[in-house]
Amino acid sequence: AVEANDTCANGFPADFVWGLGTAAYQIEGGWNATNRSPSIWDVFSHTKGAVAGGDTGDVADDVIHRWRDDIALMSELGLKHYRFSLSWSRMMSWDGHSMVPNEPGIAWYSDFLDGLLEAGITAHVTLYHWDLPQALHEHRGGWHTPDNERILTEFEAYATLAFERLGSRVATWFTFNEPWTFTVSGYSAGNHAPGCVPAQSGRGPCAGGDVTPYVVSTNVLNAHARAVAVYRTRFAATLGGRISITLNCEFARPLTNSAADAAAAERALQFWLGWWLEPLLSGDYPAAMRRNVGERLPSFSPEQRELLIGSIDLLGINHYSTHMVRDVADGERGDASSGWEADQHVVATFGAGWPQAASPWQRSYPAGLRGLLNWVAARYKGDIYVTENGWSCNSFTAAAAAADQEQLDYYTGYTEQVRLALVEDGVPVRGYFGWSLLDNFEWADGYSKRFGLYYVNYTTQQRTPKKAAAWWKETRSAC
Ligand code: GBH
């Protein structure tokens, strides 16, 4: 129970972490500033037909040049915690054999971190928010090559460089953001970089069929574990920060009260979140996946298991929406969807009457976040942080955005469910990061979708606060 005198007017403990997030490729721009080299997202966004409107991240929010103003914007909001990611392709360059430090890029992040520090803003930094250096994808087997020791070594070197050069100013490290999303979208659906799809369609340089997402997940989990081991053995004691990973999951509710649908909802959560969480806790993929995926699911060696188990100091959870899930009998689907999609044996829909966001995949169902947090807390006993939650706005002009009530309703509804999970259910949720500080490059949707607390005019780069920004300042920044 929380002592009354430690509770803020918003109903949360005084030490609850309130922050906002962004990611490098979505906001930075400066595609070749600081001697940056291409990532898979540069190549993908410049591929005809890959991104809505032909949009690219070349300029994005131009934060690479406007960062001082944007830190001032954060201060204006009273922000005390900021979550952002490093661009591997800015931190390092390809020398024809491996990635080596890129001093101008490192200096940019170093200055930025100093700026945050001066503004009293704590930094929470993600190493990998989907932007693999193109050279590692092309010449070193990327994430899609089975048992790819070369990518593990490269990631370990990158993480070490980041800890060494930036770690004194970073409170929390996240190795990967949403491995589920970049694995399924990038290596199965093909609508994200690097655009790989199952082999039978003949598209993509890394088409591997329905085993590829599981190959990718195994490499990514092993890379995570390596980076964590480096941080813990060489840096944690002196730097005092914590390290983890950010996993995304929509909540799953059974469509009917049948036992089969209850099992299907549980299975969906295992395929979505258990896929990543279970190896971090027990060193292996969930039983439901072993059962349905069979021999296509790689194994971890005893050494890999040892590194994986307990390799998070806390857990970051990104959450946007909820699905109603029903069971699917063997063979019922009969479609050509990816292995991961079909392997679950579920069909997901939305509940009737849930408000629709601009992004087709998102509807508002606030109670789903409380349900998810409880599901996670039943399995993981450490601190939980909601590292992303936000609304794809239905307003598309600065004036409409400034008056956007739906986004505000989403934030009030969802944060209230976080409060209930904490205060009523005892879930150890310690922080909440809204997505996002600014409208930005929304991946395959380009600039057509807007999640910012600030509206961005991409012609003038002017930032305009939305209604939720004022709410944030009054009720989240203030205790
Ligand atoms: C996060 O992904 C990202 O971390 C962030 O970069 C992004 O800007 C933000 O959220 C908003 O999207 O089209 O039905 O196949 C969100 C998780 C998972 C949401 C995949 C879209 C596609 C569903 N995403 N999902 S569908």
Highlighted features:
479 residues, alpha/beta, eight-stranded parallel barrel, three-stranded mixed β-sheet, 15 strands, binds ligand GBH, transmembrane helix
Model description:
It comes from Emiliania huxleyi (strain CCMP1516). GO terms for molecular function: beta-glucosidase activity. Belongs to the glycosyl hydrolase 1 family. Keywords: Glycosidase, Hydrolase, Membrane, Transmembrane, Transmembrane helix. This is Beta-glucosidase. With 479 residues, this protein is an alpha/beta fold. Helices cover 41% and strands 15% of the residues. It contains 17 helices and 15 strands. The protein has helices at 24-27, 40-45, 63-76, 88-91, 103-118, 134-139, 149-166, 179-189, 212-239, 259-282, 287-293, 302-308, 339-343, 367-377, 398-402, 405-423, 467-477; strands at residues 17-21, 81-85, 92-94, 99-101, 122-128, 172-177, 242-248, 251-254, 315-318, 322-327, 346-349, 384-388, 429-435, 454-456, 463-465. The strands form four sheets. An eight-stranded parallel β-barrel has the order 1-2-5-6-7-9-12-13, surrounded by seven helices. Strands 8-10-11 form a three-stranded mixed beta sheet. Helix 3 (63-76) runs parallel beside helix 5 (103-118), helix 7 packs parallel to helix 9 and helix 8 (179-189) packs antiparallel against helix 9. The protein starts with 16 loop residues before the first strand and ends with a helix. Bound molecules: ligand GBH. Ligand GBH is lined by residues 23, 26, 177-178, 181, 248, 318, 320, 361, 388, 435, 442, 451.
